[in-house]
Amino acid sequence: MAMKKIINILFVAVAMMAVTSCDDFLDITPDGQVKRDDMLSTAEGIEEALYGAYSQLRSNTLYGQELSYSYIEVMAQTMDCYGNEAVTALGAYDYKYSTVEYMFEAVWTEMYKNISNVNSILNSPLIEGASSYPFSVYRGEALALRAFMHFDLMRIYAEQFTLNPEADGIPYATEFSLNTPDFESLAKNYEHVIADLKEAERLLADEDEYKNSSLFMTDRQIHLNLYAVQALLARVYLTMGDKENAYAYAKNVIEKSGFVLNDKTDINGDIAGVLSKKETLFGVYFSGFYANVSAKLQQTSSYFSLDPRDDIMDIYNESADGLDFRVNAYFTSVDLGGSERIRLSKLTDIYELQGITSSRPTDLILGINLIRLPEMYYICAETLLDKDYDAAVDYFDAVLESRGLQPLKSRTDGTLLTQELINLDRYKEFIGEGQTFFNMKRQNLAIESADGSRTFQPSNAIYVVPVPDVEHENRY
Predict the structure, then answer these.
(1) C-alpha count within 13 angstroms, C-beta hemisphere, residue 231
(2) CATH architecture designation of domain 2-473
(3) Of 205, 268, 283, 334, whose CB neighbour count within 10 A is largest?
């Protein structure tokens, strides 16, 4: 335990060093070019640059807020903020409302800036074409990170591939540059994502041989490790409508990663500002996540804090048989002037909230969960639904039981597994984690507003955020 604590302290020190020193790395100027080349001339410099690229994911514009529990959840109608004009506009899919437009311009710009930094690593002499450890691992992680960021940009700013495979895509950047490259087709985008992830998978195939051999090879959950890459491939293939490959990758992660579903009694606080020890395949280290989450989700500030949709408790009661441990783990009730207010507390660090951070177990990693194991079970259930119903039920039941609910196979009410039931439980599981909107978009589903007053029919006006005007203006 003492050694683990030392390792965690060392990791925090390295991560902090990466954050404070990556300003030079991010400086795309002639002077910055010299500093960049200097940094990437050693293994230690490359590691620092990778830590810097990972750390950028936790910005408020990206997964530290907007692409996890805030803007992207408002788009899924899981969260709302009565009286906040920007949230109201976003909830009506008014992507041209000034604040909303500005935020999505910032998402675009910041993601491409970080993609360029990752390309800087990939284009460096030590990494380009690397095939032996440790440089093969660095290259594999960088390729996976490039694919991860492009894929989410595609899911935000492009059409759903299965509905229009010939649709316009986004620029797929492969060079260190201040400017994004030309736009390409969505089909070409997916070719690039798959190619990057497949190469990353190949390069990371033997990473277990070096696990814990260095600080960089410790706490692999905060890196795009082999099984995180395979899980991401399952997610990408499902989005493309390739059920066979989605199932194969999801099944492999379930069977070989060593990660397992939590027992129902372990759910409370499991991802409350920390990475789940059993279920997180990939997450971002972030010691300051509590400050973001507390202000937006735990507090009840008018016109600022986000509230779960009005009928959230009804959703958790729907098609439920047994005590769903997620309800108490994910939500708390606060008294506001004599009326009850539900808060989404699943992401709120309970040790910070209670002022007892010294009691936090030393083996917990503070941060944001980005890929978790339950998703692989849902993918297996969905892809097998029309092919092997009993096996699909087995995968789905595994999640139900781990959350305290009765498995379908033991129920006597005749409930059958359907796509709608899988979507419902996915919704319950991933609320606040930025995945629900994308699951709805993938299936072209109608979306009921957070207050239940209207239903938005699926269309590109809802599911495709316009590419920022500044991107087109800068090309002429």
Answers:
(1) 26
(2) Alpha Horseshoe (1.25)
(3) 283
